[in-house]
Amino acid sequence: MDPMTTTALRTVTTRPAVLTAPGALPTAGRTATACCTDLARPAVDEGAAQDLARAFRALADPTRVRLLSLVASHAEQEACVCDLTEPVGLSQPTVSHHLKVLVEAGLLTREQRGRWAYYALVPGAVDDLAGLLSRSFAG
Fold first, then answer.
1. pTM of the full predicted structure?
2. What share of the chain is helix, strand, coil (3-state, %, to 5)?
3. How far from chain centre, in Å, is Cα 22?
4. What is the DSSP secondary-structure string of 46-102?
5. Which terminus of the chain is less hemmed in, N or C, by CB atoms within 10 Å?
6. pLDDT band at 44, cuts 50/70/90?
7. What b/e sequence results for 7-33 when a residue is b if at least 16 CB atoms lie within 10 Å of its CB, and e otherwise?
8. What is residue 124's three-state secondary structure?
9. In the chain, what are the domains?
10. Range 7-21 average pLDDT
């Protein structure tokens, strides 16, 4: 025989199979247990998962978390971009980019007033996010 085409034969030792229920798959010497259980509460639906993921992406950057906190700390939870550059130590275009991401995530609104843009916390956005997290993942 050609050694390149020869299939190696090996001895296979098997143990007796145990069937636990009609139609159940055999297990080798183990008893089967249910691997699936009922949900204790509804899981996050696709729409809520998309919303959470968008907010998490926006808040995954420490600068954006800080900017959101700074806006929320201003009177009426509103701040001019000119008031946000110094506290985070970044240029105005960089801060504007981060604020744009927070607006797109639905956490801030933007209003142009003359030369400057003003950003405000969306009423209830942070509370809604916290509530959704609490309802979705609380034990």
1. 0.68
2. 45, 15, 40
3. 41
4. HHHHHHHHHHHHHHTSHHHHHHHHHHHHSGGGEEEGGGTHHHHT--HHHHHHHHHHH
5. C
6. confident
7. eeeeeeeeeeeeeeeeeeeeeeeeeee
8. coil
9. 62-137 (1.10.10.10)
10. 49
